[in-house]
Amino acid sequence: MTQLVVYDPLPEAFAHWERQLSATLGEKVDFVRTQNEGLGRGARIWALLRHVKTARRLLRSGRPVLVTWPLLGWLEVILWASPATTVYLSVHDPRPLRRQIGLGKASAWLARRTPSRWRPKIIAYSSVALDTIRDTLPGTSITMLPLPMMPQAPQAPTLARPRRVLVLGQYKPARDLDVLAMLGSRLPQAGIAGLIAGRGWPPVAGWEVHDRFLTEAEFDAELMSAGCLLIPYQHYFQSGVAARAVELGTPVVGAEHPFLCESLGLAGTPGIVCDVASPEAWMEAISASVETHSPVDIFDEVRTRWHDWFVQAEGLAHRLT
User: Fold this and answer.
1) pLDDT of residue 320
2) Which of 72, 211, 217, 267 could cross-link with 261 by S-S, CB 3.0 to 4.6 Å?
3) φ, ψ for residue 263 (rounded to 5)?
4) CA distance 321 to 302
5) DSSP annotation string for 23-67
6) How many angstroms separate the CA atoms of 266 and 92, rounded?
7) CA–CA gap between residue 58 and residue 88 (Å, rounded)
8) 163 to each of 106, 191, 251, 271, how far by Cα in Å?
9) Backbone angles phi, psi at 132, to 5 degrees
10) pLDDT tens across 194-231, in order?
């Protein structure tokens, strides 16, 4: 059994992430989960109380802990502060794409009051996220890692992909509706269908919109049946949807961004758009991506970087025990 404990406060949302982490580390990881039992106010309060109780219990164990999601935002820095137990806090979006408890200025100020040597160590998933966390919590130990991933498609060129571009996932204010509207009038002229699937989306001219929740199986099915995945964000730090696309061998199209280019290894691929103001640049990227596509082979690098981190975490744990 490893020393490391992986604590997941949102197991329904992070089930695939857990599988990715297990596959990436190649180790028998000890997972601890808390279950959410409803969306009502009372249920949320009980969930937070269970979260705090679990954190206290894991800190008393003395084993290193990796927390998959900061349920309380920057207040997690205070919750997990410890002079003896090493905690790694996985921070996906240091400035949330939609409102999230504990990620405001007051919470960040309180977190900064925690002695830096007691704070959890933070894991970021792009250089943009790392810089933002560093500005928010000076003096905090931060490590940048790629999202854990597991290949699920043959690593060979694919010919004649479906001529359909997919936007997948829940609507958030950071989604760039202007880009989608711009493409909506051009995709049919190129013989390419556009599909948006996920909760909360408004109608978008030129696109077929499926405003509903997708199961894990439906999520993967949409990705596998798409010619390419489009990432239409005005700003973001990482994209689990893009990582899933790479796992499944589906081309990714998006504006040049450190997460896509560095973390997912997509620099130089046809789907990277440098001139984001140019409709032609977007259309060229989409058209090229649905033609012959060679899957990105980044999985060995992802495994190596996570394994190196894991060895370091285990080694530190042994030194402290």
Assistant:
1) 46
2) 267
3) -70, -35
4) 29
5) HHHTS--EEEE-----SSHHHHHHHHHHHHHHHHHHHHH-S-EEE
6) 19
7) 12
8) 48, 7, 12, 14
9) -65, -45
10) 999 999 999 999 999 999 999 999 999 999 999 999 99
Separation of alpha carbons 57 and 54, rounded Å: 5
Is the separation of the CB atoms in 69 and 49 below 8 Å?
no
Gap between the Cα atoms of 195 and 230, Å rounded: 10
Predicted pLDDT at 43: 73
The alpha helices in 62-205, defined as continuous H runs, are 75-79, 105-112, 127-136, 177-184
Q: Which of 147, 171, 172, 168 is nearest to 97 (CA)?
A: 172
* 3-state secondary structure labels for all residues of 70-105: CCCCCHHHHHCCCCCCCEEEECCCCCCCCCCCCCCH
Over pLDDT 70: what percentage of the chain?
Answer: 93
Q: Which residues pair with 272 in a beta bridge?
A: 254
User: Kind and range of the H or E element at 125?
Assistant: none
* Amino acid identity at 234: Q
Instruction: Provide the token pair at 42.
Output: 């009372």
- Mind listing the pLDDT tens digit for each residue in 65-112? 999 999 999 999 999 999 999 999 999 999 877 778 899 999 999 999
Domains of the chain listed by start with CATH number: 5-148+300-320 (3.40.50), 164-289 (3.40.50.2000)
Q: What's the residue count for the chain?
A: 321
Segment (H or E) for 208: strand 208-210
Give percent helix, percent strand, percent coil of the chain, each to the nearest 5.
40, 15, 45
Q: Hey, how many other C-beta atoms are within 10 angstroms of the C-beta on 142?
A: 16
CA distance 241 to 250: 11
Per-residue pLDDT, averaged over 161-169, amounts to: 92
Q: Smallest Cα–Cα separation from 169: which of 196, 198, 194?
A: 198
More confident residue, 253 or 48: 253
Residue 296's φ and ψ, nearest 5 degrees, are -80, 130
Query: CA–CA separation, 169 vs 196, rounded Å?
Result: 8
